[in-house]
Amino acid sequence: MPRLMRRLPLHFLLIAICLVWIMPTTGLLVSSFRPASAVATSGWWTAFQSPMDFTLENYEQVLSRRNMDISFLNSLMITIPATVLPIMLAAYAAFAFAWMRFPGRDVLFTLVVGLLIVPLQMTLVPLLKLFNALGISGTFLAIWLAHTGFGLPFAIYLLRNFFAQLPREMFEAASLDGASAFTLFYRLTLPTSMPAIASLAIFQFMWVWNDLLAALIFLGGRRAVAPMTVTISNLVSSQGEGWQLLTSAAFISMLLPLAIYFSMQRYFVNGILTGSIKG
Amino acid sequence: MLLERLIQIPVVVTTILLLVVGYLVVIERLLNRLPHHRQAKLRPWLWLTPALIFLSVFLLYPMLNTIYLSLLDAKSELFVGFENFTDIVSDATTRNALSNTLIWLVWFTSIVVLLGLLMTVLSEKVAYEHLIKMIMFLPMAISFVAAGVIWKFMFDYQPATRPQTGTLNAIWTSLIPNGEPQPWLINPLTNTPVLIFVAIWIFAGFCMVILSAGLKGIPSEIQESARIDGANEWQSFIYITLPLLSPTIAVVATTMLINALKAFDIVYVLTNGNYNTDVIATRMYKELFTAHDFGRASAIAVVLLLATLPIIAFNIRQYRQREANL
Amino acid sequence: MKGLVKLFQIVVFILIFPSLSSVSMLAQEDSDSVAAAGTKALEIVGGEAIGGSVSMLGVLGGAELDAFLNIFVPFEDATGIHVEYESTRDIAAVLQTRLEGGNPPDIASNPGVGQMIAYANEGRMIELSQFLPEDNLSNYDPVLLETVGADGKIFNIFTAVNLAGLIWYNPNTYTGPNPPQTWEELQAWATETAATGTTPWCIGLESGAASGWPGLNWINDLVMNQLDSESYNQWWRGELSWTSPEIRQAYEMLGEIALDPQMVESGSTAVLATNFLNGGDGIFAEPPSCYLHNQASFYGAIATGNFPDLVPIEDINFFAFPSIDPAYANVRQVSGEVMGMFNDTPQSRALIQYFASTEAQTLMAETGIWLSASRAIPIEAYPSPFTQRAAEILSNAQTVYYNASGLMPQEMNAAFLSSILEYIQAPETLDTILTNLDSVREAAYR
User: Is residue B77 included in any domain, yes or no?
Assistant: First the structure.
């Protein structure tokens, strides 16, 4: 009992912050099951007073929307390669930055960090020109390449920091045993950095999954290639009618990233490192 | 078309994996044929090559192009020197945007990093850690299109005579006696803080995920051994956890500083910079897509670039220190 | 945790499955007008399907996009040309980037008319008069066509037209002059009503990134009703100073309503903070908290969306903005989108020709959402009571203007938009606001 009493402020603080954090999303969730006219004229918290007026209409309309099915697959087609590619390339680069010695290493690395600031808007026109010259604008290849480029600085920055924190002794021991760079990378570095790689993967996945601008510029909103963000933003008319559909659409498009987050949960929890190596 | 896509996806992903792993296998094979000292010299560059190609084409080249354009006129035809820079500095709107960005830098970064750290460390101590993490992570998964709707529900304003539909005003009017509904996004006293709060709401989960990945990397034995030596929770946090976590904190802080500098979507969606909420990135967007002034837009982008120099310098110093300590 | 993952997989599957299996079908009326449009389309391509596709960039979404695309169904069926509509809310940025990057859409249907006029002036668009037949063009108001062109040549045609400057009311509660003969008469009634304690007007300007736009229509109404057409055209061309008395007076007249808590529901704060979708809600409240709401022809759909029980004409109706100066009576403003061409292909030529035809414009009228800019479309073609009445007002107009803010260069338009919000928030700074608009004018029309 005293322990619980002593920890009461801790629980109170955590729960209070969580309540604040979940409230906006709860409002959206409740609203997604209400008819538009009710949402426009009364607050979402009044939904549970009688007369209760709930409907699946918003979900039905979004799911039955033309092209929602193909755009879901298009989103996957865009997002998976655009997540795998930058993370793998960043891991190579980060490994080199963290564990190899070469002249100009620090300068090059700070340049990579500096590239984080480049505003996306300033890259659009030069890149579109390039893609046109290569004849790949409007193709999935263009958007994979673009997202890889945009995602790399943060990925390299994050992974290099995590790689560099791995115990030096571990690498020295393995090197003495004759392990190659390839083995050090795939057998030691990657498995022990899973929490960082998993975090990175989920972020990159979500950024690409939720991206609208790059898709519109490099891919275009053509039905054959349009991702879900494009199809969803087209649910609403130019005068704003149909905005209530965005409530249900938000949850539908959130399901996959959340499912991935859950399925990666165990990687977030343990680096294999924890407990296995003595500090 | 659906079936075609369903087949394409695994094929594409497998191809990419094969290409990327295959690259490493091939270069390592080739390297192994070389004498040892040549290997050590060449290896880092070959590991870096794919990333460097992408970075040069997709970011470095557009950045250099931007610097070049910042010295040309609106239509990128005539060389005007530093005129764009003197223009934006003397322009009251841009100066106002600069000072707002400064507010973002200070408040957004400090609050979001501290909150992320606090939640990471505290949630370790309770059984419902996963639940907390998921709740904090949730906002990141919501697209900006939907976030616009969410915040409409939060900040909505109705005249006092009508029932409030915005959560914040409903709470406000019921908690404060005779409380008038507030136009949160319009009142210059509340709008920038409110926008910053939205950003914190989105990015706190990001900080938390990365910080806790860093925390998981600290062997628990170290903390336990400190405890055995008689340190209390607070002391072991300050003297053991915090120093070991500091590289990760630096990564998070740097990323958030850059996010604050680049803050755009939230302002664009909720106020479009009206009522004194403009920030550097919304100014740049307006110069680019409303005024069609490539020179000025590029100059603003260059100012952003310059603003990151201190952040980068801080990072370099950090590395040097850590290297020296090893 | 494993269980949760499974659960999620199941949920995802259930949600995805129905949409995978649903076959998309366009509801297609087999009416005479559809058949006529098909025949026309086939005639345009020379009697034989030519195939291919046209990419079109626009801003429409949801039900209105479906209605818009329905206009092209007979065209697609007859010609084999596939219309690929790409929609974005941020068309200014996307169109500019795609154009700069060398990858423009074949056709853009753009509400940012100023942007399209600028592209026409820069020679980046295809001149339409070189292939649009003369007898077809004569269906359109020549002055309006020239307004959205360049150098007296035609580069854009009108699509998705709305009539602005309509004053909406609830026939069950509104007791004022109907229709009022003059602005003075209406405002006299409004002042009287205000004195009894009920606010006569309601205004809602909030609209996210586009906040303030209903105010543009207000100012436009107030300006065009007090200005000769020569000066009106000078205004949007940047040849009239914003500090000139006519413009200043329009702001002040809007202020007399929007800044006075007795004239407008809940005063200026509510004007700024109320979303335009809820702007007229007070008319239908019980008891009404206001009686009059100035909004374009699409407001009927918004109101009946918020209050599904409203019966058109019986519970919600409108009259046209009354005249202020008898010298310029019966002037009307339209807004909407214009359609122009960036890539000259046989397919996009065919599409523009088809769209400008009376047959396609009849289908436009039949959407019940927009008006047609073509004067050849009879009032009876409009199925909705709202669009029919609006079309009637438009056809009886003495002078039809295109909304001035839409014609201004984007930079001027954006500054004009902000000026409305600034004025409502701090009316005492009107001098500064107008002077600032003048300095933007100098830069924007270079």
Answer: no
